[in-house]
Amino acid sequence: MKRLMVIGVSAGVGKSTFASELGEILQIDVYHLDAFYWKPNWIEAPFEEFEEAQRRISERHTWIIEGNYSKTFGVREDRADTIIYLELPRYICLYRALKRWVTNLGKTRPDIGAGCKEKMEWKFVRYIVTTYKDRKRKMYIRLEHWQASGKEVIVLKSKQEIRSYLQDLKIEQNQPNKQLS
Questions:
Q1: Residue 106: alpha-carbon gap to chain centroid
Q2: Rounded to the nearest 5 degrees, what angle is found at the Cα of 125, between the Cα atoms of 116 and 115?
Q3: DSSP β-bridge partners for residue 8
Q4: Which DSSP category does 81 fall into?
Q5: 85 — phi, psi (to 5°)?
Q6: 83 beta partners
Q7: Contacts of 140-148 spanning 24+ positions with Cβ under 8 A
Q8: How would you classify the pairing of strands 43-44 and 3-8?
Q9: How far apart are CA 12 and CA 15, in angstroms?
Q10: Where does the pLDDT of residue 181 fall: very low under 50, low under 70, confident under 90, or very high at 90 and above?
Q11: Cα–Cα distance for residue pair 72/164, rounded to 1 Å
């Protein structure tokens, strides 16, 4: 695993936290797409600029790129060797998104664009609630495609699976290399 996409079913699923922990374990730089997409005061970056930032990152030898932004999957998927998909129930995603808002109210999170103080809008809540099933269905079609094209696809569907995966990876990374005889 050298070039990883961390994606998820919804906001609040834990992509940023997971990617940061994964980066620490693997000693690979993590790039949060929200930090490239959002300019100060929640202004969207021009599409070409956002796409080019991803292209520059994806040309590197190693990376973890976290975030969905499905319109730019093509930029990342060509170079990715591993796709990790997080899927938790809708109510957990919604709860976490609301908790994140309350916890970070008035602050700018490190995984978001500079000058974007935490906020919550009704349309964002509605988006999480109303598009969950359709996004989940579309994601499985993409995952099947990526797997068929030879990419390693890892699907983690519970908090326990996510914790276990990271713990197992930590153990694996800390084991000394075996000598060949």
A1: 23
A2: 0
A3: 86
A4: S
A5: -110, 125
A6: 5, 153
A7: 142/70, 142/73, 143/83, 143/85, 146/77, 146/83
A8: unpaired
A9: 8
A10: very low
A11: 30
Q: What does the alpha-carbon distance between residue 115 and residue 113 come to, in Å, rounded to a whole number?
A: 6
For residues 50 and 61, the answer to whether their CB atoms sit within 8 Å is no
Whether pLDDT at 178 is above 80: no
| Polymer length of the chain | 181
Q: Which residues of 60-71 are buried (b: 16+ CB within 10 A; e: fewer)?
A: eeebbbbbbbee
Q: Tell me the residue type at 22.
A: L
Q: What angle do CA 48, 51, 53 make, to 5 degrees?
A: 110
Rounded Cα–Cα distance for residues 99 and 83 (Å): 27
> Is residue 18 exposed (0-12), middle (13-18) or buried (19+ Cβ within 10 Å)?
buried
Determine the residue type at 42: W
Q: Cα(40)–Cα(85) distance, rounded to whole angstroms?
A: 29
Contact 35, 46 (CB under 8 A): no
Instruction: Spell out where the chain has E strands.
Output: 3-8, 30-32, 38-39, 43-44, 63-66, 82-86, 152-156
Query: For the CA atoms of the chain, what is the radius of gyration?
Result: 17
pLDDT in tens, 1-53: 999 999 999 999 999 999 999 999 999 999 999 999 999 999 999 999 999 99
